[in-house]
Amino acid sequence: MSKLWGGRFTKETNKLVEEFTASISFDQKLAIEDIEGSLAHVQMLGACNIIPLEDAETIKEGLLSIKEQVEKGEIEFSIEHEDIHMNIEKLLIDNIGPVGGKLHTGRSRNDQVATDMHLYLKNKTKEIIQLVQDVQHSILTQAKVNIDTLIPGYTHLQRAQPVSFAHHLMAYFWMFERDKERLQDSLKRVNWLPLGAGALAGTTFPIDRAKVAKQLGFETIYPNSMDAVSDRDFIVEFLSIGALIMTHISRLSEELVIWSSQEFQFIELDDSFCTGSSIMPQKKNPDVPELLRAKTGRTYGNLIGLLTVLKGLPLAYNKDMQEDKEGMFDTVETLEGSLQLLAPMIETMTVKKEIMRKALNQDFSNATDIADYLVTKGLPFRDAHEVIGKIVLYSIQNGKYLLDLSLDEYQQFSALFESDIYVILSPEHVVSARNSYGGTSPFQVKEQIKLAEETLFIKSK
Ligand code: ARG
Known about the structure:
It is an enzyme of class 4 (lyase). Belongs to the lyase 1 family. Argininosuccinate lyase subfamily. Its main location: cytoplasm. The protein has helices at about 15-20, 25, 30-45, 55-70, 85-95, 110-145, 165-190, 210-215, 225-230, 235-260, 285-310, 325-350, 355-360, 365-375, 380-395, 405-415, 420-425, 425-430, 440-460, and strands at about 150-155, 160-165, 190-195, 220, 265-270, 350. The protein is mostly helical. The chain has three domains: about 10-105, Orthogonal Bundle (Fumarase C, Chain B, domain 1), CATH 1.10.275.10; about 110-360, Fumarase C, Chain A, domain 2; about 360-460, Ribonucleotide Reductase Protein R1, domain 1. α10 runs parallel beside α12 (about 325-350). The chain is elongated, with a radius of gyration of 31 Å. It starts with 14 loop residues before the first helix and ends with a helix. Arginine binds near residues 110 and 319. Arginine (ARG) binds near residues 27, 113, 317 and 321.
């Protein structure tokens, strides 16, 4: 019987059961975290005289040498030992002899696996915050050179009012800023230490959890051992923030796909971020934003998957919880891959300023401004809205835009019109007139960019 838990068994495990229950194929990603956790645990066992100091030292050396082998990729894990925890313990015992069997004193795989996951997410969350920040920098780079670039602003994907292209891009900056804040806040809860909870009820040994927490860099210790081994909220939280980040990436990607189409031609993605068609030689496809949009789906799946795993589980640990890992790894890897591509793709895209500007000569997105014009001349907004609606209808019927109408034509609709009407109709004027805080005027956009830079600077300090 070579299983670490083989004592009470009289038969070999069915091969299919062994394969079905094993997690080593995926939880080997936690090898380093598992060893870090064990190192802290064993040093505490020695310091608290729970095992002799020299045994703790021998185990520590053994673990460090396994860690080195893992880092060099020299270890082949085996399905026979089910998961990363038992694989490493088995390696340790094989390497240093029976004294290795003292490592698991006062500990269970239940508090061990929870600790590994906390350590893993702690590192990954910090890394992802940095990657989100890289995307923010690339948005800022484009925004700063496009403050005066005008683009139609849309609602219902219908032309609404012209805006600064920088203003449009900066909307995403703030979405990502909130995402970073969420990740940062979630770290508070990732920073709880489960180790020392034992299987579910604590341990009979005089352990020192504070010492372990200090060594592993945890700020809080789970005050309830049953909660410690069965809490997966911190993973749900990460998956939910991850899904939201991908939602933001997906919305931006959708815009990039639309803007780079033949119909819009507002931007061109760099050749190095596009692919061709195997049959149509003229094609340059925006595969990257399309895939970013699509990969959002799997992160929603990972979130719903884990919520569903947890919803009916009684306390404390249940094997169901082993299913928390693959979705978590997948969301981490999806975020890493997506954010790493998004930043350079935004930075290298070409903004076709003239085409954007030309588009504005052929729409009615200055209509609100004539309404506002009549309002400043004393007409109630509702009446002004009605008058301009009629003017727009008249223009469409006569194949004209608002700048093409003569003063005579305007005055047929309202005697309040004077020749200054033409000044306020240019898209440049329409944009710069929206000078309220958070608005799209060049002045406000510059202020916004200043604030964004300060925000990045302060937070990266
Ligand atoms: N591989 C297991 C998991 O990921 C480790 C914990 C196993 N605990 C147990 N009592 N079977 O959840």
